[in-house]
Amino acid sequence: MIEPQQVVKLASPVVGLIARLDVDRGDIVRQGQAVGKIEDGIEVANLALARARATNDAAVKSAEARVQFLRSKYERLNKLHTRAVSSLASLQETEAEVDVAEQQLKEARLNLSIARLEVAHAEEVLNQRTLRSPIDGVVVERLLVPGEYRNDQSPVLTLAQIDPLRVEVFVPSAYFGRIRIGSKAEVRPERPIGGVHIALVTVVDHVLDAASGTFGVRLALPNPHLTLPAGIRCKVTFAMQIPNALPALEAGDTPSKK
């Protein structure tokens, strides 16, 4: 059977109303492509507010000006104190004001850094409202439509990766050991597709099914132009390896006669 490489039930980490869907069944999508969006009006407003806070450095500039003023004041009082013109109490009071102002400057800078981090957080929250395809593939089904509410357990789209395709084959146990990973095989899809296509063996099961006397083999079938469909039966011709030879006889051994 020729199957998709993988099938993805596309969902979102957030819930809300589906604002729009940009794709429909049968459309080809690329990894990272925006395929829809969940209602994001509040998140857009929160991002604008966070950016306004992150660009407002008035508190930092005000604190820097106050620190500069108090340092100059302290230097003047210190010179006057050395000349016995200013009292020690005034000098110590100004020194304390400088310390407080420097702490306020640190707090203002910290708040500005936090505001910038809030921008990154708001951008990520907004980004989660956009539905993006995790694979290159095709839309198999639309499970919701714009205006419907997406809850924690409802996917929005079903996507299928069909390049490469996956071919699952069950081979008689007699051929175990003659099919190797990396070997090539010819795949012939049923009509009306037909044709001969080269695939590569990617998996050979090491646990045989005793009931059916078979083992599983998986192949990767390139489909760069997406011309081959998934969900169709096929026949596979393998390039068989020569079975391992019997061990050589040691010197002095004689083969048994039957």
Strand order of the largest sheet: 1-10-13-12-11-14
End-to-end distance, in Å? 45 Å
Low-confidence stretches: 245-258
Largest sheet: 6 strands, antiparallel
The total beta strand count reads: 14
Oligomeric form of this entry? single chain
Q: What string gives the helices and strands in order?
A: EEEEEHHHEEEEEEEEE
* Tally of DSSP helical segments: 3
| β-sheet strand percentage | 25-35%
Count of structural domains? 3
- Give the helix/strand class: alpha+beta
Radius of gyration from the alpha-carbon trace, in angstroms: 36 Å
Overall 3D form: elongated
Share of residues in helices:
25-40%
Q: Compute the average pLDDT.
A: 88
Q: What key attributes describe this structure?
A:
Elongation Factor Tu (Ef-tu), domain 3; 258 residues; OB fold (Dihydrolipoamide Acetyltransferase, E2P); alpha+beta; 3 domains; six-stranded antiparallel β-sheet
Could you give the topology of this structure?
Elements: E1 2-3, E2 6-10, E3 16-21, E4 28-29, E5 34-38, H1 41-54, H2 58-82, H3 88-127, E6 130-132, E7 137-142, E8 149-150, E9 157-161, E10 165-172, E11 184-189, E12 197-204, E13 214-221, E14 234-238
Helix pairs in contact: 1-3, 2-3
How would you describe this protein?
With 258 residues, the chain is of the alpha+beta class. It folds into three domains: 2-38 and 130-160, RNA polymerase II/Efflux pump adaptor protein, barrel-sandwich hybrid domain (OB fold (Dihydrolipoamide Acetyltransferase, E2P)), CATH 2.40.50; 44-127; 163-238, Efflux pump adaptor protein, beta barrel domain (Elongation Factor Tu (Ef-tu), domain 3). The protein is built from three helices and 14 strands. The protein has helices at residues 41-54, 58-82, 88-127, and strands spanning 2-3, 6-10, 16-21, 28-29, 34-38, 130-132, 137-142, 149-150, 157-161, 165-172, 184-189, 197-204, 214-221, 234-238. The strands form three sheets. A six-stranded antiparallel sheet has the order 1-10-13-12-11-14, with no helix packed on it. Strand 11 and strand 12 (197-204) form a beta hairpin. Helix 1 runs antiparallel to helix 3 and helix 2 (58-82) packs antiparallel against helix 3 (88-127). The two termini are 45 Å apart.
